[in-house]
Amino acid sequence: MKILLIEDHKELAYSITDYLKKEGYICETASSKIEAEEKIDFYDYDCILLDLMLPDGNGLDLLKDIHSKKQNSSVIIISAKDTLDHKLTGLDEGADDYITKPFALPELHSRIKAVLRRKMPELNHTLLFNEISINIDSKECKVKNTLINLTPKELNLLIFFISNENRMLSKQSIAGHLWGDYTYSIDNIDFVYQHLKNLRKKITDAGGKDYLQTIYGLGYKWQDV
């Protein structure tokens, strides 16, 4: 899962990103409204953590921009403003949750997991695709009820593909999702191939079907054909 943290307080931003990376998330940061706008325009995020007080603008204006562009990202407001009016305004503008500073990092993590679960239409916090099932909470993957051992990157990759069924994903977008936006400045990202190869093998060895279609010269598509 890929998260964008929009926070201008450097120490707090470091604490949050360090914690979330240890929990297995890809976490990018932006310290201003204009930097956040650039990242949101170019990259996709599963969840955006949004501070309301930014040095060059209001976080609520950014929230409005996110929804006007029909971004599919969940948004959690993180703010020192703890009045009911501020919370209601943030939620009315389309935020999925609102957490007041200071907060415990495990609580923030629980809020993130909750809003991400709400994006999943499946019951019991399980992502299903034919014979493949993924428990989002325990991070376990089964093929025909057989547990398969996926690395965190492989599991993240599988969730990414299933969540984008029938959508062509470029090799660059896959690299960016798994390792962060800095990969867009790297010329050679052939390391993506090895993760795709390993994921395919583990699924098919467990009796699953290979749903990963190669679109030559463009990228890959997860498709039930």
Mean pLDDT rating: 82
Under CATH, the topology of the largest domain can be stated as: Rossmann fold
The string of secondary-structure elements, in order, is EHEHEEEHEHEHEEEEHHHEE
Low-pLDDT stretches are: none
Number of strands: 13
Give the number of helices. Answer: 8
How many domains comprise the coordinates?
A: 2
* Termini gap: 26 Å
Radius of gyration, rounded?
18 Å
Question: How would you describe the overall organization of this protein?
Answer:
This protein has 225 residues and is α/β, with parallel strands linked by helices. It has two domains: 2-119, Rossmann fold (3-Layer(aba) Sandwich); 123-222, Winged helix-like DNA-binding domain superfamily/Winged helix DNA-binding domain (Arc Repressor Mutant, subunit A), CATH 1.10.10.10. It is 41% helix and 23% strand. The strands form four sheets. It has a five-stranded parallel sheet with strand order 2-1-3-6-7, with helices on both faces. The two termini are 26 Å apart.
Quick synopsis:
The protein is of the alpha/beta class and 225 residues long. The chain folds into two domains: 2-119, Response regulator (Rossmann fold, 3-Layer(aba) Sandwich), CATH 3.40.50; 123-222, Winged helix-like DNA-binding domain superfamily/Winged helix DNA-binding domain (Arc Repressor Mutant, subunit A).
Compile the SSE list and pairings.
Elements: E1 2-6, H1 10-22, E2 26-30, H2 33-42, E3 47-51, E4 53-54, E5 57-58, H3 59-68, E6 74-79, H4 84-92, E7 97-100, H5 105-119, E8 126-129, E9 132-135, E10 140-143, E11 146-148, H6 152-163, H7 171-179, H8 191-205, E12 212-215, E13 219-222
Parallel strand pairs: 1-2, 1-3, 3-6, 6-7
Antiparallel strand pairs: 4-5, 8-9, 9-10, 10-11, 12-13
Helix pairs in contact: 6-8
